[in-house]
Amino acid sequence: MTVNRKLAFALAGAGIAAASAAHAESFGDQARVISSRPVVEQIPVAREQCWNERQSGYVDQRVTRSDTGASIGAGTVLGAVVGGVIGHQFGNSSGGHDRGTAAGAIVGGLVGNQIDRDNAGAPVTEVERVPVERDVKRCRTVNEVREATVGYDVRYEYRGRQFTTRLQRPPGHTIPVSVDVQAVDDTPPPPRHYR
Q: What percent of the chain has a predicted confidence (pLDDT) above 90?
């Protein structure tokens, strides 16, 4: 057999195979599920964990003072004494002298107190450090590992043969399959002649 005849046979065989593949047909059918096993994987997950923390500190607070803070000043005492003496002088009877003394002391004390306040000067503003406690929000990232089902390994049977596949969802009793049908040329090749 010459090289040209061998080449012609090879090309003819390839043409028959291509023609057979071109005429392949497919259809859908159902296959029986034998087993289904979930596929579980560990997946890292990051989440934020927050809590409140009690924190102590200081704040600056402005305080305005308009007097020395003393309830009775020197002017109040002096005014009461002077008012008492004057009131005693102008009282009519012995009972009147006592009443005049008391009234003069009260009026003199009020006048002396007002003089103390007037002489105290302008209000003074001071800054004081005051202790305070407050809640401070703290957060951190926590890495965890969770198990998640990523699919199902399914074993099924179709026409007496068993197959396996992985599905995203759990199957029922049957699963759909796609069947491809194609003719196979089982004609024996021509005998080879050797020289």
A: 28
Q: How far from 120 is each of 67, 71, 113, 140, CA to CA, in Å?
A: 6, 13, 11, 56
Residue 139 pLDDT > 80, yes or no? yes
Q: What is the DSSP string of 127-149?
A: EEEEEEEEEEEEEEEEEEEEEEE
Enter the tokens of residue 177.
Answer: 């399959």
Instruction: Read off the tokens for 121.
Output: 């000067």
Residues 6+ apart with CB under 8 A from 98: 91
The Cα 137–Cα 51 span in angstroms is 6
pLDDT in tens, 74-92: 656 666 566 666 666 666 5
Residues 6 or more apart whose CB falls under 8 angstroms from that of 10 comprise: none
Residue found under tokens 């593949």 = 21
Gap between the Cα atoms of 31 and 183, Å rounded: 22
